[in-house]
Amino acid sequence: xxxxxxxxxxxxxxxxxxxxxxxxxxxxxxxxxxxxxxxxxxxxxxxxxxxxxxxxxxxxxxxxxxxxxxxxxxxxxxxxxxxxxxxxxxxx
Length: 92
Ligand code: SF4
Prior knowledge:
Layout: E1 5-9, H1 19-23, E2 28-30, E3 36-38, E4 52-54, H2 60-69, E5 75-79, E6 85-87
This protein binds iron/sulfur cluster (SF4).
C-alpha cells in the first residue's frame, strides 16, 4: 500500500543541528536563520508556519529516520488523505 505522505517541521522546536538536512537534503534544508525548513517542488524553502511538502517515495526511509532522530521532536509526517500523523511526536 503506497499512501501519499507529506512532512512539515515545527520550527519553534528546531535545534538547528541539521540532522534532517544530512539524511534527506532533497526534502530538508537549513535557512540562514539556523532553522530547518521543508522544500517545495521548485526547491524553494517553504517558510509559512506548518507548511508541508510531499514525501517522495524513494526518500521515505530517509524522512522517517530524520523524524526519529530529530532532537527537537519537531518533524511531522502525516497522511495526505486524512491528515493523520504516522511518524513523529504526534503519531499514534
Ligand atoms: S533534525 Fe529536527 S531539530 Fe534538527 S535541524 Fe532538523 S528539524 Fe531541526
